[in-house]
Structures are given as C-alpha cells and as structure tokens.
Specification:
Layout (H helix, E strand, L loop, with lengths): L27 H8 L7 H13 L7 H16 L29 H15 L1 H8 L7
Helix pairs in contact: 2-4, 3-4, 3-5
C-alpha cells in the first residue's frame, strides 16, 4: 500500500492537494501579494501559476504519488457532473486559505483541466514509469 510521503498512513489522493501550494494562510503579505499579480481567469496566468507552484513544487511527491494523484484527477474530470467549484470553498477540517477572488473563479473545471494537461506533460516520465509497475505492490 502506498504510504503518505510524510506520514506512516496510507496515501489517499485528494484534489485539494493541488491547491495546497496556493495556501496563503499566515503568508498574505508574501505569497498572497505574489498571487495578487496574477488573474486566475486568464489562461496564461493560470499556466504560469500551475507550472511554478504545482509542477515545480511537486518535488516532494514520488513518481508513484504523482501517478495516483493524476489518476484521481483524471477520474474527476471524466465525471461531467463533478463540481470543481466546491474545492475552492472552505471545507471542514481543511485549513487552506486561497488567494483573494479564487472562490469566484469563472471556470474551476478549466483550472483543473489545465493542471491535468500540464502535469501529464511535465511529469510524463514519472507517470510512464509508474504506469509500468504493478500498483498492487505499492
């Protein structure tokens, strides 16, 4: 069973993990200020944010964790009824403050489609490596 990268518990991927790098809680004056220069509704800004804060920041994930997380995202994207906007609201027990205005994002599904496209592009070798393994042995 695949274990969490930092804890001795089973790893259960959650789409909110993709939002973790954008958590501005207690960092409003630094990270929050940096995010204020981007418009989350513009494709070019979204792509820059995803590359810098998810792709480049994903180094704490092993190739196996990346595969499981991307598979989970693919599953959600294949469900036409999945409400991606709910991921941007404060969930009980999930303490993440997203940048101002993100809860009003025009196309939350599009944001996650961009994440899927870019992670599959930039993590291609890791995802391929993991797909060649027997996941039941993890």
């Amino acid at each position: 069973m695949l274990k969490h990268p930092f804890l001795d518990v089973p790893y259960e991927p959650k789409l909110r993990y993709f939002l973790g790098p954008f958590d501005t809680y207690d960092r409003e004056e630094t990270l929050g200020e940096a995010f204020s220069h981007y418009n989350i509704n513009l494709d070019i800004d979204r792509e820059q944010l995803i590359k810098k804060y998810i792709i480049d920041n994903g180094s704490d994930l092993t190739y196996r964790h990346r595969k499981v997380l991307c598979d989970h995202l693919e599953s959600a994207l294949s469900d036409e009824t999945y409400d991606f906007s709910q991921l941007f609201s404060q969930a009980p027990g999930y303490y993440c403050t997203l940048p101002e205005g993100w809860s009003d994002m025009e196309n939350p599904r599009g944001f996650f489609e961009d994440i899927y496209r870019l992670t599959n592009e930039w993590w291609k070798d890791d995802l391929q490596k993991a797909s060649l393994e027997n996941q039941s042995t993890w």
